[in-house]
């Protein structure tokens, strides 16, 4: 089982959703993201939000088409995205894809990045990936990982989100590394590329965010 969460970020950053729609997927709408799903012909299984970003007409359609609707007051301690992710985590999926969580307000974007590395699920086997038209963002704990080359999203960056990431090794990359320690705030691993059909990256301690990006000029 996989879960797709669509938030209410700017529509221009959200990729086509239907190619992701598989039979084993559960779709979750977050605030205006619920309406984005309906616009794409996808009926969300569950919806979260205070829905202060939809019109009265859109809210009426949401009420008519979504059976599991979890509506909250705007004044609450958690964001709508946090509530949706906590719910998704409890379903024990193999992977959670997050759309509509980039662009627009930077406070929400940074909060969403923070949710990806939340302590209680960072060491769990569930994978989280944030997707928009230009980037795919995922989180990694220590280990060795194989990475295939992507014809469109050719740029690969590794960003430490812990004070230190130890012994990072990159093989098959344009700029390889061997057992390099990097610290939070380092730009050493920004904008690399694979030169082989596939490469590997590994590290022994810390947490990394990997960002795959397409050339915006394409």
Number of helices: 5
CATH classification, class level of the largest domain: Alpha Beta
What proportion of the residues form beta strands (DSSP E)? 25-35%
Estimate the mean pLDDT confidence.
91
Find the count of extended strands (DSSP E, 2+ residues): 14
CATH topology of the largest domain: Rossmann fold
The H/E string reads EEHEHEHEHHEEEEEEEEE
Principal-axes shape call: elongated
Helix content: 10-25%
Number of domains: 2
Q: Find the CATH superfamily of the largest domain.
A: Thiamin pyrophosphokinase, catalytic domain
Q: Strands of the biggest beta sheet: in what spatial order?
A: 4-3-2-1-5-6-7-14-9-12
Query: Between the first and last Cα atoms, what is the distance in angstroms?
Result: 33 Å
Q: Could you say which structural class the secondary elements and strand pairing correspond to? A: alpha/beta
> Could you name the ranges where pLDDT drops below 50 across 5 or more consecutive residues?
none
Tell me the CATH architecture of the largest domain.
3-Layer(aba) Sandwich
Pfam families: TPK_B1_binding, TPK_catalytic
EC number: 2.7.6.2
Protein name: Thiamine diphosphokinase
GO molecular function: ATP binding; kinase activity; thiamine binding; thiamine diphosphokinase activity
Descriptive notes:
With 218 residues, the protein is of the alpha/beta class. It folds into two domains: 2-133, Rossmann fold, CATH 3.40.50.10240; 140-213, Thiamin pyrophosphokinase, catalytic domain (Rossmann fold, 3-Layer(aba) Sandwich). The protein contains five helices and 14 strands. The chain has helices at residues 32-39, 56-65, 80-90, 106-116, 119-122; strands at residues 2-6, 25-30, 46-49, 69-71, 95-99, 127-131, 135-140, 143-148, 155-160, 164-171, 177-183, 192-193, 198-203, 208-213. The strands form two sheets. Strands 4-3-2-1-5-6-7-14-9-12 form a ten-stranded mixed beta sheet, sandwiched between helices. The protein has a four-stranded antiparallel beta sheet with strand order 8-13-10-11, with no helix packed on it. The longest helix has 11 residues, at 80-90. The relative contact order is 0.15. This is Thiamine diphosphokinase. It is an enzyme of class 2 (transferase). InterPro entries: Thi_PPkinase, Thiamin_PyroPKinase_B1-bd, TPK, TPK_B1-bd_sf, TPK_catalytic, TPK_catalytic_sf. One of its GO terms (molecular function) is thiamine binding. Residues 143-209 form the Thiamin pyrophosphokinase thiamin-binding domain.
């Amino acid at each position: 089982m996989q879960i797709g969460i669509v938030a209410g970020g700017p529509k221009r950053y959200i990729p086509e959703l239907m190619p992701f729609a598989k039979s084993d997927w559960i779709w979750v709408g977050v605030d205006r993201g619920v309406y984005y799903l309906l616009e794409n012909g996808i009926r969300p299984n569950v919806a979260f939000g205070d829905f202060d970003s939809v019109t009265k007409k859109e809210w009426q359609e949401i009420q008519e088409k979504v059976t599991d609707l979890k509506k909250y007051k705007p004044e609450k301690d958690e964001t709508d995205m946090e509530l949706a992710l906590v719910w998704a985590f409890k379903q024990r999926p193999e992977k959670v894809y997050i759309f509509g969580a980039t662009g627009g307000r930077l406070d929400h974007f940074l909060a969403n990045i923070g949710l990806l590395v939340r302590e209680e699920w960072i060491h769990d086997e569930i994978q989280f990936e944030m997707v928009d038209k230009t980037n795919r963002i995922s989180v990694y704990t220590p280990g060795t990982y194989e990475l295939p080359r992507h014809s469109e999203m050719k740029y690969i960056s590794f960003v430490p989100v812990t004070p230190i990431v130890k012994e990072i090794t990159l093989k098959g990359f344009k700029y390889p590394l061997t057992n390099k320690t990097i610290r939070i705030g380092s730009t050493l691993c920004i904008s690399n590329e694979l030169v082989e059909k596939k490469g590997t990256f590994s590290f022994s301690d810390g947490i990394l965010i990997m960002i795959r990006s397409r050339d915006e000029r394409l």
